[in-house]
Amino acid sequence: MNVPFLIAKRYFFSRKKRNIISIISNIAMIGVAVGSAALIIVLSVFNGLEDLIREIYSSFDPDLKVTAAEGKSFETDTEFMNRIRNTPGVAVVSEVIEDNALLRYNERQMVVKVKGVSENFFEQNEIGASVVEGSSDLYFNKTYRALVGRGVQYQLSIRPGNQFVPMQFLYPRNVKFNPLNPEGSFNSLNILPGGIFAIERQYDDAYVFVPLNFAEELLDYGRRRTALEIKVAEGTQIDQVKRELQQLLGEGFKVQNSDEQHTSLLRAVKVEKLFVFITFAFILGIASLNIFFSLSMLVIDKKKDIAILASMGATAKTIRNIFLLEGALVAFIGAAYGLTIGMLIGNLQQTFGLVSMGMATSVVEAYPVKMEVADFVFTGLAIIVITLLVSIRPANKAAAMSVTDNI
Fold first, then answer.
1. For the chain, which terminus, N or C, has the lower number of CB atoms within 10 Å?
2. What is the pLDDT of residues 59-103, one digit of tens each?
3. Are residues 248 and 277 in the same domain?
4. What is the per-residue DSSP string for 332-359?
5. Final residue of a domain: which of 257, 281, 297?
């Protein structure tokens, strides 16, 4: 029989008249419940935002991306490409040339990112599903077409249906600038707009997709490429293919999976989540100070009980455990209510989208939520540590109390 727990439970569930000690204990329990519920809800929102970022970029990013470790481009040839295509687990390899260029349309102009892609690019990419106007076909009727971001379309008032007004791309040539003939210092190529895509503002406001051969000629890249985008075969582990490609290509190349292509953004979300956890842990600590006060007052109120238990043979450890368990009951019951409420609110948000993001341009209407077991575990561990810290001093004070002075 666990005597300390039975006594602690009797103190907690005592039906005697309400006094200041029980009021403070209830306040502490409510504070822990509110703090733990808020912590679970906020952490779940951060998990949802992290998944949302991955979902948004999945339509733009390949499974694996090969780039130069130094510089922005690298040379390719048939043997080099065949070695990559023959790597186990590689399903599709798309060649990419990406650089900044000046885009003119009618009387307007802006700098855009030109992304030249090979014909198999859309076999591994879901951008076709993001086309809101026109077509994603870059080789319409054996003529080149461009796929334009919606933000670029708005800036330049581009009309895909107008086949008489082409877009003009300008890119500086590797020659000495001639002030008498400034246009001679630029490569200039025209292409008709074929479609408009809308993925995410970062891409919509900057990118224009063009055929690879068009980009080669405009940017003077020849056989150089800025990246190779790779689709991994179904049922193959991406990390395994990544390791094999990295070993094949050596230190002169970087092979990145989808998360590594946005390391800084995902790291920022994780860092924010960590600081939110620490902040709410401090709030839980402040709420748990009420446990310290209620235990301290309980020790004073139960001086005679402590003396009687000691005279009956209870050890200092037994008396200490009574008050440690009393604090644990207050904290754990509050945490149980809080974690349950947090889980219910998270489920309601997932199902019904109760709280809107309040932005007309947002890709989702309501805040995304994803609950993870790890968040519940770490919140529980934080409550255990905080409860022990605030309960140790009152428990030690009770254990050290003199028997003769309190009988």
1. N
2. 788 999 999 999 999 999 999 999 999 999 999 999 999 999 999
3. no
4. HHHHHHHHHHHHHHHHHHHHH--SB---
5. 257
